[in-house]
Amino acid sequence: xxxxxxxxxxxxxxxxxxxxxxxxxxxxxxxxxxxxxxxxxxxxxxxxxxxxxxxxxxxxxxxxxxxxxxxxxxxxxxxxxxxxxxxxxxxxxxxxxxxxxxxxxxxxxxxxxxxxxxxxxxxxxxxxxxxxxxxxxxxxxxxxxxxxxxxxxxxxxxxxxxxxxxxxxxxxxxxxxxxxxxxxxxxxxxxxxxxxxxxxxxxxxxxxxxxxxxxxxxxxxxxxxxxxxxxxxxxxxxxxxxxxxx
Length: 246
Ligand code: ZN
Description:
By secondary structure, the chain is an alpha/beta fold. The chain has helices at residues 2-15, 26-29, 42-45, 53-58, 60-72, 82-92, 107-111, 169-181, 200-206, 234-244, and strands at residues 19-23, 98-101, 116-118, 121-128, 134-136, 156-160, 184-188, 210-215, 228-231. It has 10 helices and 9 strands. Helix 6 (82-92) runs parallel beside helix 10 (234-244) and helix 8 packs parallel to helix 9 (200-206). The radius of gyration is 18 Å and the shape is elongated.
């Protein structure tokens, strides 16, 4: 069944002139990053209200303590896995044209992917909430919390989307534009539960895009919009696709 579906997916990927990969937490699980939701998720251990935007502004030291622990002592140290590398390889060979990711871990870029849209932002940049200047993560010490802007001493905030914050307009528009122009969308490791990101594949489908889904089990997309379901770990399935497509 999987082999047959892999062959179908390969045919679609060969004829597609514009293929967009849409990834979620599932692709980074094999890099040792648990998903945020679910019984073993990070929010079972940490209080998610600590990255609620108003809580952050009112209690930056307390929020930053958890932010550092989760995102900089832990997630930032993770390495890409073979699924990230397979996607980067497919992009290099011309089978993938862009990647829209819900992840903020920067692992697609570390694996070598070039055209990456980070829908929820990234841990790799910090922005001053006062003067709005952006800094690379490496430019800022996290020895003392909360970190302050080197220019104006304003509070620095990681450039990922906190609870209660809207998706920045620019990345939102660009991501939906990518979805509309896609001929094939490869959904990888996402169950489609996080709004509004979850709408991206529906937009693609409405524009006539073929949906190929790679997940370990059925998602909210599978019975609604998925044309080809590739059941399995992202690393296994994507390595197979990458091996067949030269
Ligand atoms: Zn500043």
